[in-house]
Write a structure and sequence with these properties.
The protein is mainly alpha-helical. It has 9 helices and 3 strands, in the order H-H-H-E-H-H-E-E-H-H-H-H.
Length: 194
C-alpha cells in the first residue's frame, strides 16, 4: 500500500530524528559517539582512551602542570581527572609532585613510559582525526574545526546574557508569588465579549 505524503514525511522525521535533528546537544552527542567509535577502531583494543591521550598530550605540552591546569586544558571534570591521573600514575605514565609555587597543589609530569605511549598513539589519533574530517566536504573542514574550537573554550558558567534571558523568560512564564496574572485590558474585554 502506498504511503500518503503525511506518512512519508512522518517516517522521514522519525528516521532523521524529528525534533532531535535540530537539537545541538543531541547532534553533538551523536557526533561524539561516532568520533569515539572511530578513535577506538584506530587505537585498537590495547590502546589508550581518547581522554587518556588528551591528558598525556596536555601534560607533554606543559610539563609540571597542576591538576587544575589539566582540568582547564582537557575539559575533564576535576574528580574524573583526579581518578584518571591516579590510574595513569599507577601505570607509570605520569608522576605527581607537590608544586614549588603552591604547597597545596600537585603538579603532573610525563614519565618516559608515558612519553612512549603518547608517541605510539599520535599516528593512530591522527588517523582517527583524518577519518572524522573525511566525513565532511573538504570546503567545510576548516570551518568545522574553528566552530568546535570556539565552542570548546566557551565557559558556560560565565555567560550572563544567556542567564539573563532565561531569567526573563522564566518570569514571563509564571506570575510572582501572591500576585495575580495581570492581563492587558484589551484581552479582558475580548474575553467578556466572547
Amino acid at each position: 500500500m502506498a504511503k500518503t505524503k503525511g506518512e512519508a514525511k512522518s517516517d522521514k522525521g522519525t528516521e532523521h530524528g524529528g525534533a532531535l535533528a535540530r537539537s545541538p546537544s543531541h547532534l553533538l552527542h551523536r557526533v561524539l559517539q561516532l568520533a569515539l567509535d572511530i578513535y577506538a577502531e584506530e587505537s585498537g583494543s590495547g590502546g589508550i582512551t581518547q581522554r587518556q591521550f588528551a591528558v598525556l598530550a596536555a601534560v607533554a605540552e606543559n610539563q609540571g602542570v597542576t591538576q587544575t591546569g589539566l582540568v582547564r586544558a582537557t575539559g575533564i571534570d576535576r574528580s574524573t581527572l583526579a581518578d584518571m591521573v591516579a590510574r595513569m600514575i599507577t601505570k607509570g605514565h605520569l608522576e605527581r609532585h607537590r608544586s614549588d609555587q603552591d604547597a597545596r597543589a600537585n603538579t603532573v609530569s610525563l614519565t618516559p613510559a608515558g612519553a612512549a605511549v603518547l608517541e605510539e598513539s599520535r599516528p593512530k589519533v591522527a588517523m582517527a582525526d583524518a577519518r572524522i574530517l573525511a566525513l565532511l566536504k573538504p570546503s567545510k573542514r576548516e570551518g568545522f574545526l574553528e566552530l568546535l574550537a570556539d565552542m570548546a573554550v566557551t565557559d558556560v558558567h560565565a555567560e550572563p546574557e544567556v542567564k539573563a534571558k532565561k531569567a526573563k523568560a522564566s518570569k514571563a512564564e509564571k506570575p510572582a508569588h501572591g500576585k495575580k496574572d495581570k492581563k492587558p485590558k484589551k484581552e479582558k474585554a475580548a474575553k467578556k465579549a466572547a
